[in-house]
Amino acid sequence: QSVLTQPPSVSAAPGQKVTISCSGSSSNIENNYVSWYQQLPGTAPKLLIYDNNKRPSGIPDRFSGSKSGTSATLGITGLQTGDEADYYCGTWDSSLSAVVFGGGTKLTVL
Amino acid sequence: EVQLVESGGGLVQPGRSLRLSCAASGFTFGDYGMNWFRQAPGKGLEWIGLIRSKTYGGTTDYAASVKGRFTISRDDSKSIAFLQMNSLKTEDTAVYYCVRPGYNWLPEGYFDHWGQGVLVTVSS
Question: Strand ranges (DSSP E) for chain A?
Answer without folding.
Answer: 9-12, 18-23, 35-39, 46-49, 63-68, 71-76, 85-93, 98-101, 105-109
